[in-house]
Amino acid sequence: MKKHFLYAALFILFQACNSAKDKDKAVILTISGEIQPESLGITLVHEHVLVDFIGADSTGDHRWDRQEVVDFLVPYIREIQEKGVKTIVECTPSFLGKDPLLLQMISEKTGMQFITNTGYYGAVNGKYLPGEISDLSVEDLAGRWIAEFKEGIAGTDVRPGFIKIGVNEGEVLSAVDEKLVLAAAYTHKQTGLLIVSHTGTWKTAKAQIELLKREGVDLKHFVWVHAQNEPDFENYRKAVQEGVWVSLDGIVWDVEGHFQRLKFFKEQIDLDRVLISHDAGWYSPGEEDQSGFKGYSSLFDQLLPRLLQEGFTQSDIDKMLIYNPREAFSLWPD
Q: Which cofactor does it need (predicted)?
């Protein structure tokens, strides 16, 4: 009997060690390569450096001087580094100003970690999609995105750390939007990358959720972006029950609205599936006046002090800014 007990104890210990070892294998892909999840630190999960709204047929890095953008951005990056931010998830999609070399330059200058993306943005009725989108199959799209994951983006060695798509508002997805969601599902299943989708209200999130479930995607790998646009807070409960990440990422535009939603989460649900950020930045190529650029500090200067005054704990804050992003963006081995 003692021998059986000893074997059982050793087996349990072996399993625990293997589990811990597997957990250590999780990585997060930044523009500088793989990092361990615990190196992520305080993370802003939805920000922009440069966004070019001219359209997919005209945009390109010929429209901006990288060094000028770096010089402009550095003070804003330094400001939030002083507040403890270690990582920015840069959500600018392809054909909207995504520039991994620019991010590398900013990172080298400041030490800020950046995570960039693969995928296409279908919102605004396809203005930011390549002209051949209608001729591309789901497999074609996924093939492009998987190639970026394996080989790097646009001839660089920068690999994406998540999939960024965007869809148009509505209860039923358009044919193009459905194609994007399906391609994201396929890419996720081949790479493990998190699916981050510009969405808006629950009706559009639900349409994507049903499609992803049909494709066998675990919804813990899906982020409902711009969920702050949902007026019925009870729909947050439905999303959390599905396992979805709920991203309240427009703080710079509406501090009060984010406070009310976070209060609802803390009192009525929990904060385990909540991500928060600004949706700030937006250096605009071709414009001499960059006064519309918004920094990344409203969270720290306005929202967090109020949350702490209203009963939120530092553990609550750390969960939303450190531990939830770490869990969401981690890639696990097969």
A: a divalent metal cation
